[in-house]
Amino acid sequence: MHPLFCVSIFWLLPLALVLDDDSPLDCVPRRSVPYHSDNAHLFHEEGMSNYTTMLLREDLGLLLLGAKEAVYALDLNDITKKRASVKWEVTQQQEDDCHNKGKEPETQCKNYIRILHKLDDNRMYVCGTNAFNPECDYMSYANGKLTLEKKGEDGKGKCPFDPIQRYASIMVDDNLYSATSMNFLGSEPVLMRSSPSSIRTEFKSSWLNEPNFVSMAQMPESDQSDEGDDDKVYLFFSESAVECDCYNKLVVSRVARVCKGDVGGERTLQKKWTSFLKARLECPVLGSQLPYIIQDTYRWCDPDQHWKSCFFYAIFTPQADTSDLSAVCAYRVSDISRVFAEGKYKMPVTVETSYVKWVMYSGDVPVPRPGACIDKVAREAGITQSLDLPDRTLQFVKDRPLMDQAIQPIGKKPLLVRRGATFTCIVVNHVQAADGHKYHVMFIGTEDGSLLKAANYDGEMFIIEQVQLFQSPQSIKILRFSNVTDQLYAGSDYGVVQVPVATCGRSLSCMDCVLARDPYCGWDKVAGSCVALSSTQRELIQSVRDGDASLCPKAAPVPIVNQSILPGGNVKLLCPSPSNLATTSWERDGRHVTSSLRHQLLQDGLLILNASDSDVGRYRCLSVEHSKVDKYTTRVAEYQLDVKRAATSVPQSQRRGPSVVGLQAAVGLLVVSLLALLAWNFYNGHLPLPWNCNEKKKGQSNGSHGQGGHTSTGSHQVALMSGLTEGKPLVSGSGQSRSNNNHTDREVGFSSGEDDDATRVTLPSLQFIDDESEI
Ligand SMILES: *[C@@H]1O[C@H](CO)[C@@H](O)[C@H](O)[C@H]1NC(C)=O
Ligand SMILES: *[C@@H]1O[C@H](CO)[C@@H](O)[C@H](O)[C@H]1NC(C)=O
Fold first, then answer.
1. How many angstroms separate the CA atoms of 229 and 262, rounded?
2. 99, burial (CB in 10 Å: exposed 0-12, middle 13-18, buried 19+)
3. Ligand nearest to the CA of 739
4. Higher pLDDT residue, 647 or 341?
5. Which of 429-438, 579-588, 710-719 has the lowest mean pLDDT?
6. Substitution candidate for ligand 2 out of 726, 728, 730 with most atoms within 8 A of CB
7. Pocket of ligand 1 (CB under 6 A)
8. Residue 483 C-alpha to ligand 2 middle, in angstroms?
9. Ligand nearest to the CA of 430
């Protein structure tokens, strides 16, 4: 598809939605909030960049931030307040060595902080790429200072050499689990646990085949386990499919897992995982032939419930540049766990001389089950650790770590599919709405620096808003949520921003507040404002499932704005719609205004060209928005238009010379409009600086104050949701790049030419062979 074509589709979307309500691909955010410095708190330090590693230290009230050559400790409540920082720069010698090996001194030969984890003794473990020579260290925060211990631990296998390579890591019981590549060339991928007896994956393409690591998470599966199961560590990644019966390279999404208690085998799989199993992860996007590729995940667990009720939310993007869709799929941890515990394995079969096909294994499966953790049954048979496992079991899993069955998302389809800016990362929140139900709200970062907020109402996806977080388009590379501050933290190469989960004050009317269907917000009739549920004990008007605004009190009439214009002049009457889902229309003296040469109906107003006496009248802009239950009409703006001769339009000016008449008219209008604007904001109880507002409503200087315009009020409120629960963010190196973890030199070829090949893969060749009998 030609990029321009995509762009045009993106821009036509709001229109398309009006025409086709139910199209699942056309999820349009109800509200678009353009960039404004009030949208978020920003941390950015001059000369510093790549703020893409984070660690929330709620116990210290800090956000630890890893950047290029530095670590920062920021105030978790207000990240603009820097509490401490420490530099970790490469030496000239290191930079020269790196340069001599053919790397770029200014970009590649620096120290990019990639790993930041908390240790049980409250210190932190930090690793950086260190000029293509990864190194790790211990760091502590005391007396307002960050201190590195300069231990100089080898970071090989823990942290990538190459700053653009993707990786994932997690700290479990002071053991670092890392997924990255082990060598300078970036060609030897590994999933490793660094502990006194460190263990890792086999270097075999059936285990990891040019992977791109995405994230890791642990699951406490030993908890109340009847089988005496072990805890697991999950790894999400994408890789070239070994099992694909196709000529071209095909990338698939995977989830792999290992057992926490695994210490490797005695002879076979010595110091290697005996429990490494992986399965394909599906996120079937309608109309796509090539599988979508996983980019980030978020683990969500209800703290009051068993691990089996946990979910993984994952973001997917297309394989090749064939489409500009992104998708979110959700998986039950129990579904994933079942495939590993009970599913069939795939096996390679050599057909003809060297051609290998992967088919379902239907022979006898050894006991204990290959890849299973040591459980009660194994212990009863005298196998108390992985070292005791028989060779037959170990050899089986060494050759066949891939499960036959793919893991399906909940509902067998994506929760959300959207065209436009590529999704990069996700955080999910569970929030109790006024109706007493709990809803999942997704926060999704995109490549252009906007944050989407979407909710799932009984299977219906609704994008509440899209907020531009960075001034210039910046890929959001990491997103974290703190359930202590109720704030989101988004990192990019340029800086880090902090945003509250809801800015209810963006809705100025009850109708807008209710139709926004934001579970965090409701309309307070007494205060006459849209407020956070958590901020008040009063009963609020909210209807997240249906968008039923019938309980809203009658809106105060919009003030009429007097607008004068000289004959033959042009004027734009503004009518900013509060919602992308609404359609606006104009009436003049109660009559519908249709588009004509002289009357142009624009997205945000009515343009009257070459005005004449016939244009005089009362203009009213109406906005109509459909919700599930009803159709709501709001009067957005009202104007009294007069076409006057200059001399009569501003009578006082007659006393002064005619030369200043025009100027005075303009100044007069401006003053009136500013006063109206100010009054309106005061009336609503918001006190933003008027010039902020003006900047925000660029071009609205003709006395319109746009009822639905976005105000800057209400941001940064620290909304402490009492009924809120949270999931631990996955510790991951999210969104660094698309570079995979082996065969770097081939990767160059891949990005330049093989993409095209990938798109040429035809459907029949994509089928996975499911049974030996099919050969
Ligand atoms: C670091 O940030 C710069 C922009 O400031 C960007 O061009 C570069 O790709 C980033 N490097 C990495 C490794 O993310
Ligand atoms: C925040 O989440 C952690 C687990 O991630 C949980 O232990 C804690 O109770 C939560 N705190 C609040 C205030 O919900």
1. 12
2. middle
3. 1
4. 341
5. 710-719
6. 726
7. 49-50, 112, 163-164, 493
8. 6
9. 2
Which of 228, 206, 359 shows the shortest CA–CA distance to 278? 206
CA distance to 202, 554, 670, 675, per residue, from 525 (Å): 64, 11, 33, 26
Q: Which residues pair with 74 in a beta bridge?
A: 63, 82
Backbone angles phi, psi at 271, to 5 degrees: 55, 25
Ligand nearest to the CA of 66: 1
Contact assessment for residue 131 and residue 100, using Cβ atoms and an 8 Å cutoff: no
3-state helix/strand/coil string of 73-92: EEECCCCCCEEEEEECCCCH
How far, in Å, CA of 478 to CA of 488, rounded?
10
Nearest-atom index, ligand 2, CA of 727: 5
Phi-psi region of 766 (alpha: psi -120 to 50; beta: other; left: phi over 0): alpha
HSE (CB half, 13 Å, CA atoms) of 37? 9
Which residue in this structure is represented by tokens 């792999």? 256
70: CA distance to ligand 1 center in Å?
Answer: 14
Output the CA 467–ligand 2 centroid distance in Å.
26
Q: What digits encode the pLDDT tens for the residues 571-588? A: 999 998 889 999 999 999
Instruction: Give 415 Cα–ligand 2 centroid separation in angstroms.
Output: 26
pLDDT band at 247 (very low <50, low <70, confident <90, very high): confident
User: Ligand 2 atom closest to Cα of 483?
Assistant: 1
452 C-alpha to center of ligand 2: Å? Answer: 24
Answer yes or no: pTM beyond 0.70.
yes
The best mutation among 725, 730, 731 to test binding of ligand 2, ranked by most ligand atoms within 8 Å of the C-beta, falls on 725
Say if CB 519 and CB 738 are below 8 A apart: no
Residue nearest to atom 14 of ligand 2 (CA): 725
In the numeric block, the tokens 């930079």 are attached to: 95
Q: What are 591's strand-pairing partners? A: 588
Residue 302's CB is within 10 A of a number of other CB atoms, namely 15
Q: Which domains does the chain have, with CATH numbers?
A: 204-210+226-408 (2.130.10.10), 560-643 (2.60.40.10), 663-774 (no CATH)
Q: Which string of DSSP letters, residue by residue, matches 55-74?
A: EEETTTTEEEEEEBTEEEEE
Longest CA span, the chain: 108
